[in-house]
Specification:
Distance between the termini: 24 Å
Largest sheet: 4 strands, antiparallel
Number of domains: 1
Order of helices and strands: EHHEEEHEEH
CATH superfamily: Gcn5-related N-acetyltransferase (GNAT)
Strand content: 15-25%
Shape: flat
Strand order of the largest sheet: 1-2-3-4
Structural class: alpha+beta
């Protein structure tokens, strides 16, 4: 990764992003999505945003923004962008936005690539030793 922090932006995920989402989810050797695979990818469009890293697609951020609460549903990045603080930055931005809107759910769950972290426990609890730093920051930060 470069010496400077990459510029991050998001844009809504659309039908045109489905082939790219298949690449993100299944890797470069995956067959083009059709049938059930395509239907499963379409689910990612609900609340989904393409994460742009220095202007290029680099991941997916899914956030449920309900009228009463919000929940981070998924943070998934291409391998070259993992462990560079990008996921932590995305989570921090959503948390700040949710706190500003007073919509943060106590049951926020974060999916980091293939690692799913359970919902955050009650305030004051300690992070499990096996939790990735970004997830720990989201719950216990």
């Amino acid at each position: 990764m470069p010496d400077r922090a990459p510029l991050l932006a998001t844009r809504p995920a659309t039908e045109q992003d489905l082939p790219w989402l298949a690449l993100l989810r299944h890797g470069p050797d995956a067959a083009p999505p059709d049938g059930e695979a395509l239907a499963a990818l379409r689910v990612l469009l609900d609340g989904g945003a393409i994460v742009l890293v220095d202007g290029l697609p680099g991941g997916l951020l899914r956030v449920h923004r309900g009228s009463r609460d919000w929940a981070i549903q998924q943070v998934q990045l291409l391998p070259q962008y993992r462990r560079a603080g990008i996921g932590s930055r995305l989570i921090a931005e959503v948390l700040a936005e949710a706190q500003h809107a007073r919509r943060l759910s106590a049951a926020t769950a974060v999916k980091l690539a293939r690692w799913t972290i359970p919902p955050c426990p009650k305030p004051g609890s300690r992070a499990p030793a096996h939790s990735p730093p970004a997830a720990a920051a989201a719950c216990w930060g």
